[in-house]
Amino acid sequence: MKKLPLLLLALLTTCFNYAQCWQSVAASYRNTSAIKTDGTLWAWGKNLRGQLGDGTNTDRLIPTKINSDNNWRRISLGEQFVIAIKTDGTL
Question: What does pLDDT average to in each consecutive run of 10 residues of the chain (91 residues)?
Answer without folding.
Answer: 51 55 90 94 92 93 93 88 91 86
